[in-house]
Design a protein that fits this description.
2-oxoglutarate-dependent dioxygenase activity, 296 residues, globular, 22% helix, Jelly Rolls, alpha+beta, single chain
């Protein structure tokens, strides 16, 4: 299993990410990888269809991506994208949420529903700062062509990650104007989008002739609970074949004997020497004292 690449986020990427709340990574997956992962998600979709677990429109939204589909594990620390994660959050991270999505063309117009939101759920009600802390970031890998609008594109308000709220309707079914400045993010198959969980975003309805296919992985600090089915992942026969960094990202307990007690690593990051990603970054001289999450 490949370890994460050693090229950190560039100065220009960081400036854009901090300003806009997202960046597009062109060609994050090769054409061969796009074909490989498309075949995988198509198999999962066919199984869900046979089991009658799709939405009324035929859409699939499966949580816990690696649990449901171990073949996607290489994406959790893909060398073209994962450096963006540790460049922003540092080494004390894991995946807390992931999903596989397929949205076929909608043939009958859906009733209006206001779906603009920030990721994080209760975090957005229970944290009191303004703006709220970032806490997590997300990678979206695009397997279908959303290079033009109207194909179920990811839609965002650039810069809105620094806003705790946007104006919205009294109920989600009340028609409401789009937030000012909203844009549909266009991407080719193989492109990835890296975004701050706080950015106000939505998925547009797909009234095109293209089936929307994407895979999402959300990363957070290890002292925040995991939403995915990590126990099932860790008990799977594939888990032992994953690299140490991948096992960290998939929630492996990193406790190791220390002195006469079983201390070792825990989610607060007090023992970085037992955390695989810290070791990888240290070995490659990527711990940056100028940036707190990457301080040695």
């Amino acid at each position: 299993m490949a370890e994460p690449a050693t090229t950190p986020m560039s100065k220009e990427q960081r400036e854009q990410f901090e300003r806009d709340g997202y960046i597009v990574i062109p060609g994050a997956l090769s054409a061969a990888e796009v074909q490989h992962y498309t075949e995988i998600i198509d198999r999962v979709y066919a199984a869900e269809q046979e089991a009658a677990r799709l939405s009324p429109e035929g859409a699939m939204h499966i949580l816990s991506a690696v649990h449901r589909c171990p073949e996607v594990a290489p994406l959790v620390n893909h060398p073209t994208t994962f450096p963006l994660v540790w460049s922003i959050l540092g080494w004390n991270v894991h995946i807390y949420h992931s999903h596989l999505d397929v949205h076929p063309p909608i043939r009958v117009p859906k009733p209006y529903r206001f779906e603009w939101h920030q990721d994080g759920g209760r975090q957005n009600r229970e944290l009191e700062t303004d703006p709220r802390p970032r806490l997590s970031v997300k990678l979206a890998y695009w397997l279908s062509d959303v290079s033009v609008e109207g194909r179920g594109n990811f839609k965002v308000v650039p810069g809105s990650h620094l806003q705790n709220w946007i104006e919205g309707p009294p109920r989600r079914d009340v028609e409401w104007p789009e937030p000012p400045g909203a844009v549909e993010v266009c991407a080719n198959p193989g492109d990835a989008v890296f975004f701050d969980r706080r950015i106000w975003h939505t998925r547009t309805n797909n009234y095109s002739d293209v089936t929307r296919k994407a895979m999402f992985f959300a990363y957070t600090l290890r002292w925040i609970a995991i939403r995915d089915e990590v126990v099932a992942v860790q008990q799977s026969p594939e888990f032992a074949s994953y690299s140490p960094v991948q096992r960290q990202l998939l929630g492996e307990s990193l406790h190791q004997p220390r002195f006469e007690h079983t201390y070792g690593d825990h989610q607060w990051g007090h023992y970085p020497e037992t955390t695989p990603l810290h070791g990888f970054l240290k070995d490659n001289d990527l711990l940056d004292p100028a940036y707190p999450p990457l301080k040695p």
